[in-house]
Each structure stands twice: as structure tokens, then as C-alpha cells.
Amino acid sequence: MLTQRPRGTADILPGAVEHWQRLETAVREVCRLYNFQEIRTPVFEHTELFARGVGETTDIVEKEMYTFMDRGNRSLTLRPEGTAGVVRAYVENKLYGNADAVKLYYLGPMFRYEKPQKGRDRQFHQYGCEVLGSEDPAVDAEVIALNLHILDNLGVKDVAVELNSVGCSVCRPLHKEEMIRRLRPVADRLCEDCQSRLERNPLRIFDCKNESCQALLVEVGAPTIVDSLCDDCRNHFDAVQSALTAMNVDFRLNPHLVRGLDYYTRTAWEYVVEGYSSIAGGGRYNSVVAQVGGPETPGIGFAGGIERVLMVLEAQSQGQKEQPQLDLYVVTVDDAGRQAAASLLQKARKQGFAADRDYLGRSVKAQFKAADRIRARYVAVLGESEVEAGRVALKNLATGEQVDLTWDDAIHQLSKGV
RNA sequence: GUGAGUGUGGCGAAGUGGUUAACGCACCGGAUUGUGGUUCCGGCACUCGUGGGUUCGAUUCCCAUCACUCACCCCA
Fold it and tell me: What confidence score (pLDDT) does residue A199 get?
């Protein structure tokens, strides 16, 4: 147990961490292009924030939060998602004082107490963007495009954007009522899951894989949410679509798309790759800021699952070769060589070359194999004769060429070749 | 949370109620001794997830537990 990580957590080891860094770099770079700025908020917040911000009746709040009492008897919760904390920071620091809409992004660990499976850990990681202070449909389109840009830069292929509008506080309740009115009389013919969905979130019934439920929806003529939008929402949704088209962003309408968090209004979307669960998703949330105690402020954002994006990326990029990791590997053949090695290594490193050596006293042959394994470009052989002459045998591992040089010349040589 | 499956050396993977648990890869050493990615020879390494129980005896049978995988739920 001592040597076993907690369930649903992962060690990100060398070899994998490079992929994480690449993703993080892509997020930062693309966000810069769209003039989004990074924000870092605490990993835990007052439990209340999530209860109010994410929604009391969501699965997240009802059964997935990591909640604990601290020594001061405060109820705190490890953040299950990123938006609530960002909104809290926005309100607390009065960022709404800005004339412009505030464009923020974040990156970091999130926590949900769930049964782990592929692409679903208890500590997982998201990157996400939020825009606070504008309900311009152009913002919706821009945010949708932004993540597509990130995924594209990373080389994720075949990403489809699924788009829907889930209405607002005016039209959604009406739609919900209508759904319930039509389905309640035949509720006993719905599957078990859908019977509970009917009261909580009837929209989800459209997502049920059970054919009889789908047939029942048709039979009772249940309206989709997009068909029930109020004029304002309809216009907004139309404008978002034209903006996306104008930006050359492909999307497909999915009238059944529902997002899990209660706070979404109007635009809701997901990024899906065939054969995988959605790798990112977002939505507009026009009531969250007020919900959390700030001034009535519209917001919109998305979050991407880092593990999920990397999973797709890995599956799609089989057989990509690694880059050389080391410029120089010092092979020592005897005590004289081993003693001189440190000095040669430091000289090389101070010149900006990545350099390493053997510390296990292994044979020359084994040291060469090690140099190969870590893809060193050059090997410098140091033995008594070299040390006495103040020289090294420098071998290019790719070409097999080996030359006898002074240390300075050898280090100079490192900057040449590939 | 529900259902199913899996858990043997660093990795992959055989195996049986009973003396020293195969093999492959990797790793280490050697092949006239200071040179790599091929070959040959030799070697190191396993509390058989963990804890109980049955048994003269269990890695192999039973129970529990932990972890992982898959599906559902839900989500990133």
C-alpha cells in the first residue's frame, strides 16, 4: 500500500511528460494568439462555491466531490472543474471593472470521485478558456475555434465539433415542462435510467441508447430543445452558426447534445473524435457569475481533458521517432578517465550542451550501448592516454567517425553536425 | 454507484495441489582483454497483487481486500 498510488491517480513519467509539455505549450501559444491570459486559481475552494456554481443537482456535486473539513472546521473541496474558481476570482478581484471582456485560460489538475477507467481518473487534468463579460455570438464562435486551433496545432486529427443550443432561463423551463407533460403519462415505458432522467433532466432522454426510449420520444412527439428556443436564443444560435461558417469552422448540429453542468445556457458544444468519448466540451453560462454573487455577467468557456487529448494523439501518431536527447556522452575507460570526466562534462554543459556519463563503472561496451540508448549524438572517450595528452577521442555515433581532439576543439565540434 | 474480467521477475508471457516456477525481451559480463545499434556464450532477477482460510502441503481451491481493464451511469 505504501508503494501504491491512490486509486484513480497517475504518475506521469519521463517519456510521457514530454507530451504533456508539448500540449501545455500549444495551449499557451494559441491562447496568446487569441489574446487570452493565464489565470491560476486555488486547487481547493469553499465547498459552497461548487455547490452553487456547478449546480446542486449535478452528478459532480451530488456524488463526485472530494470534500473535507480543514483544521479550522471549514468545508473545502478539491476543484472538480475549472470554471467556478475562475468566476470566483473574477468576482473577488473585480475584474469586471475592465472595459473589455475578460479572456482567461487555465491549466491544471481537477478532482472527481469516480470509478476510474480509460481517460477517467480521480485526479485528471484540464485546460480551459473562459470569456467573461460578453454575449456576442462572435465570442462563442471564437472560443469554439480557439480550441480547434489548439488541437490542430497539436496534430489531433478528425476532430468534429458538435453544436447545440440548450436555451436560457426563459425557454428551457418551458421545454422541460413540455417534455414532462408528454412523457409522464407513459413514464412506465421508459427505461429505469430515463425514468429518473424525466424529473431531473429530461433533455438527457434524447441521449439514451435504449431504442424503446427513442421510439417513445417519437411516439409522443417530444420536442427537441433547439426547436423550442425563444426568439433571443434562436437569433443568438443562428448568429453563432454564421460566425463559425464565416470563420470556416466546420461543425455539425446535434440537437440532442446536453452538457452535464447545470449552468450552461444557449451555446453548448463538444469536440469529438470517432471512437473516443468527447475530448473537450464547453458552453455559455450567462447566470453563473450572478449565481456566485457577482454582477449579472455573461460568460462562456470550454475545457479540454488533457489525458483524453493525449490519448487520442498517441493513438494517431504511432511510430513517430524521438529526438536526440543528449549532445555528448562521456565514456570512461579507467580511473584516470573517470576522474577527468567531471571536468569535461562541466565544460560542455557550460557551453550549453546536454552531457552525461556512466556512473556505474560499466564496461566500455556497455557505456557505448547506453550512449546509443539515450540517443547521444557524440561520445567522448576518456582514458589515461587522453587525459595525459589533454585530448579526447570524439566519436560521432551516427557516422561512426572518430577523431582525436583537444577538449576545446571537441566541444566546438559538438555544435556541428546534426 | 452497478455488472463482468484480470493481477506470475523491469516488460511480455507459460504453468501445476507437492523437490531448485518455463521461455522471450531488457539488463550485466565475456568472445585475446579501451568502442555502440547484428551474432554467439554465460549470468543477475520473481514475497506467483495483499491478507486470511481449506489442506500433510497452494502460485495453483475458497473468502476478503486492493489495483487495473471493459461496459453502464456520468463526464473532460
Answer: 77
Confidence at residue A264, expressed as pLDDT on a 0 to 100 scale? 87
> Within 7 Å: CB of A258 and strand B?
yes
Q: Do residues A369 and A271 share a domain?
A: no
Greatest mean pLDDT range, A196-200, A298-302, A395-399? A298-302
Q: Which nucleotides of B are covered by protein (CB under 7 A)?
A: 1-3, 27-30, 34-37, 66-76
Q: Report if CB A397 to strand B is under 7 Å.
A: yes
CATH number at residue A369: 3.40.50.800
Q: Indicate whether A236 belongs to any domain.
A: yes
Range of the domain at A288: 17-170+230-316
**Is A234 strand, coil or helix?**
helix
Give the pLDDT band of residue A320 (cuts 50, 70, 90). low
The ipTM is: 0.85
- Tally of structural domains, chain A: 2
List all residues 6 or more positions away from A172 whose beta carbon is below 8 Å from its beta carbon: A166, A225, A265
DSSP for A91-147, written as a single string? HHTTGGGSSSPEEEEEEEEEE-----BTTB-SEEEEEEEEEES---HHHHHHHHHHH
**Structural domain contains residue A3:** no
**Residue for grid cell 464547453:** A282
Query: Residues A392, A393, A397, CA angle at the centre, nearest 5°?
Result: 130
Q: Would you say the C-beta of A151 is within 7 Å of strand B?
A: no
pLDDT at A306: 96
The pLDDT, as a whole number, for residue A219 is 87
Q: How far is the CA of A73 from the C1' of B57 (A)?
A: 55
Task: Give the nearest nucleotide to A270, CA to C1'.
Answer: B76
In a domain, A188, yes or no: no
